[in-house]
Amino acid sequence: MPTKPWWASAVIYQIYPRSFADRNGDGMGDLSGVCENLEYLAELGVNAIWLSPFYLSPQADAGYDVADYRRVDPLFGDLNDFDTMLSKAHGLGLRVIVDLVPNHTSDEHAWFQEALAHPAGSSARDRYMFRDGRGNGGEEPPNNWRSIFGGRAWTRITENGVPGQWYLHLFDTKQPDLNWDNPEVRTEMESVLRFWLDRGVDGFRVDVAHGMVKAAGLPDWEGHTAMVSGDETENPAPQDPVHQQKPALDPPSPFFDQDGVHEIYRSWNRVLKEYQGDRMLVAEAWVEQPERLAQYVRADEMQQAFNFDFLLAGWDAERMATAIEKSLAANATVGAPTTWVLSNHDTVRHPSRFGLADPTTFPKGISAEDEQPDEALGLARARAAALLMLALPGSAYMYQGEELGLPEHTTLDAAFRQDPAFFRTNGIERGRDGCRVPLPWRASERGYGFSSCDTQDGNTVAPWLPQPPSFANYAVDVEMGVAGSTLELYRSALHVRAAHTLGEGTHSWAPQHDPRSGVVAFNNGPLTVIANTGSAPLELPPGAEIVLASAAESASNGELAPNSAVWFTN
Ligand code: TEU
Predict the structure, then answer these.
(1) Which residues are in the Glycosyl hydrolase family 13 catalytic domain (predicted)?
(2) Scanning 143, 224, 399, 435, which has the fewest C-beta atoms within 10 Å of its C-beta?
(3) 364 lies in a domain?
(4) Rounded to the nearest whole angstrom, what is the distance from the C-alpha of residue 346 to the centroid of ligand 1?
(5) Alpha carbon distance 38, 89 (integer Å)
(6) Are 101 and 116 members of one domain?
(7) Residue 67 in contact with residue 56, Cβ under 8 Å?
(8) Which ligand 1 atom minimizes the distance to the CA of 170?
(9) Do 114 and 99 share a structural domain?
(10) Which atom of ligand 1 sits closest to the CA of residue 148?
């Protein structure tokens, strides 16, 4: 029996609702599709699911632009479908986490519409970040901030037929940033928390958790000046301060990781404590320094933060070893469990990243014009990385399809792409659509069984994004019950992990650990884990009893092949 709260060691499976499973045949996943496949997830052995946004939204950023935090978008069903899904999940022993998007709303949210209808200086405007422009006629934006999706972070509105104030949007123009200095904003978001807690959700994944508070006076940021080139009015090359500058932003960003943000989480922590049953918050905060990130998970704030340091390490023993060591150390100082994540709906799927000539690169999307990954090599490495991740103490996050070894769709035609980042950078940033392609369930069906034919006429429309032909090899029904498949590797790993309570275990480097030679090796409980990222086979200790190997032939003759990993006891 676990002695710590469930989330301290949970394996949490991310569902991207529009691409998980489609029950009503409209080509878009839905909550009934989630509900129908909960047994699949329970049998896989995950402990919880996290659902990306399914709230009412114009879908300008695939639902991360929320128009009503208390309603389900008709694309996905209704509140009734949500409640049915939730109670079935709980019945199967699965916890349910929902996404909360507090940094910005949709421009179609009632509040923003009200703000547009009221004059500068009104209380309706004060819920957002409206400012007068610079220059004589206010024709220059209030400061030099750039949107994470490319282009300016400010858009000017038209008032009574003439150009008026500007509003801030760190993301798309259709995602105006809220003003977290406004008490009404704080009260409203706590009420949204309660709305979902009352329905029974077990926690929230907090979107852009490091972004809500901005530096007083909204100062220009020199960090941009260095990176921005070309005409300010055009969409310049993508600016991503978070991923481009490591480990610390210099000068620090005035819109990310401000100290004031922690007060918000202290009050949310108090809200959660009013409820029974270890409810939790997990921060999506792209904060590079593990010590800064650890601040989000102090005892009176959030329970977890995604450990992107591990994700960003790529397939590189030294970087993985450093990320593991630093993350464990940083979290130990605050007493919080460490989390591990390899992929999500914002990143190129890791089997594809690991198949690039430099498997530590971190493209934000891949197109047909770009270098194409070696699919087999990337998959071999991804399977080995899964064995590393699932043996580490703490909590692990999986992204839907990861258990199938699903690759990125790297040749997706521009005509199908929907990610706002793609458009705001004129396609320079390839966009995140390639990792959001609908899952293949049944290889022989149209759309690989993504949509169920339960519509009246038995017809379904094509999935909202086309799937590459290779998805036929990764379908659930192709891998299910097949020894050696990625699905069965994950299932075995999750069961061994549970049997030995590895999530609650202790990490210590094993004698074989030698990252400079490409070897990552550690002990946890009775298991030793070794991953070989090098190019030569590695000798396993005599008497090693193989528990699980990432490739059937990888641990034969007492040797561990390159690009593979094993769990063993001796
Ligand atoms: O992402 C926040 C964020 O910082 C991302 O832009 C990230 O840096 C990038 O996608 C990595 O390639 C969250 C959501 O996960 C993302 O889907 C949303 O678009 C974004 O917030 C805005 O809500």
Answers:
(1) 14-436
(2) 224
(3) yes
(4) 6
(5) 6
(6) no
(7) yes
(8) 22
(9) no
(10) 6
